[in-house]
Specification:
Blueprint lengths: L61 E5 L8 H14 L4 E6 L4 H5 L11 H6 L10 E2 L5 E4 L5 H8 L8 H6 L8 E6 L5 H9 L2 E7 L8 H14 L5 E10 L4 H14 L3 E7 L3 H8 L3 H4 L4 H15 L1
Parallel strand pairs: 1-5, 1-6, 2-4, 2-5, 6-7, 7-8
Antiparallel strand pairs: 3-4
Bound molecules: adenosine-5'-diphosphate and magnesium ion.
């Protein structure tokens, strides 16, 4: 995706869980073949998505910032599950927890609050290198740069740094050739940490909840993206807008979906993530839905998203 939607257009009003005995959902996931044809949940026909190519080697990574200053829209869930789905297509993935809440780390079963070294130390202390902090996850080929509450201090400490907006991209440089995708899970704000993520990124993935007020604030987000593109990172583009928490049974969800497509057109992924209790369950389980319930509609949807992301 190369064009940013005009900012004005975004202002439209509007204990461990037991593993399920069977993870097959009753409703089959609509046309996950990605071969086009048929009307998808966005109300448009599915576009053709080519089969992901096989890779001979890895890197340099494409950096994607998963960003929306609204909380609870599915940023962290999408980062974990898109990352895990990308590994199924042979991609090596690094997830960056860039939210002091540490939900990404916790969602992968990592007790981030107990870690002595996190992304905070790499950002702030010259003596700590990124390889000292990256850890493996339960998913093969998916690593994590964890964070915890320490990161909240970085926002303040970085303000006086020279080149403060480029701190994350400098931090990631030594590791970029080892991965195909680096996904940065942003905090729900447009502050300095998020600007750092946008400055490091090749693309932005915007999860958007299918709720009435979801489009509020998107204009401000797009405005921020355009400013970063203009002043700090000319290569930045919106990779796509991902509709999340969609309930196909309600008229409300379908109406919001129609407004989102009207406002953002082709930028909206054909893949839509339905609202299902399976996602909160995976957080408790500390693993992605692709391994927790591999045949569920949610797992299939994130695999479909991975194909779209690879194709863009
Ligand atoms: N598609 C979905 N359906 C139902 N619940 C979801 C879905 N995606 C995420 N959730 C849940 O909603 C909450 C917020 O999601 P999260 O990914 O943490 O959002 P964010 O990172 O944007 O704050 C979490 O409890 C998560 O388990
Ligand atoms: Mg989050």
């Amino acid at each position: 995706m190369s064009t940013l939607p005009q900012s004005g257009r975004g202002t439209v009003e509007l204990s461990i869980a037991p593993r399920a005995a069977s993870d097959d959902d009753e409703q089959p996931f609509a046309d996950s073949s990605g071969n086009g044809g048929g009307v998808g949940p966005t109300g448009r026909a599915w576009r053709h998505i080519p089969e992901p190519s096989l890779l001979n080697g890895h890197g340099p990574a494409k950096i994607l910032a998963v960003c929306n200053q609204k909380g609870g829209v599915g940023k962290t869930t999408s980062t974990i599950n898109l990352g895990a789905a990308l590994t199924e297509f042979g991609r090596r993935v690094l997830l960056v927890d860039f939210d002091p809440q540490g939900a990404l780390s916790v969602g992968l079963g990592i007790p981030a609050h107990q870690l002595d070294r996190t992304i905070y130390n790499v950002l702030i202390e010259r003596s700590v290198g990124i390889h000292d902090v990256v850890i493996r996850t339960c998913v093969e080929d998916m690593d994590l740069l964890p964070s915890n509450i320490d990161l909240s201090a970085a926002e303040v400490q970085l303000v006086t740094e020279v080149g403060r907006e480029h701190t994350l991209v400098r931090t990631l440089r030594p590791i970029i050739d080892e991965y195909d995708y680096i996904l940065v899970d942003c905090q729900p704000s447009l502050g300095l940490l998020t600007v750092n993520a946008l400055t490091a990124a090749d693309g932005v993935l915007i999860p958007l909840e299918c709720e009435f007020f979801s489009l509020r604030g998107v204009a401000l987000l797009i405005d921020t993206i355009e400013k970063v593109k203009d002043r700090l990172n000319p290569k930045l583009d919106i990779t796509g807008i991902l509709a999340t928490m969609f309930d196909p049974r309600t008229l409300h969800s379908r109406e919001v979906m129609a407004r989102v497509v009207e406002a953002f057109g082709e930028t909206v992924f054909d893949t839509v993530i339905n609202r299902t209790v399976r996602f909160p369950e995976t957080t408790v389980a500390g693993e992605p839905i692709t391994t927790w319930a591999p045949r569920s509609a949610g797992a299939k949807a994130y695999r479909q998203l991975a194909r779209e992301v690879i194709a863009r």
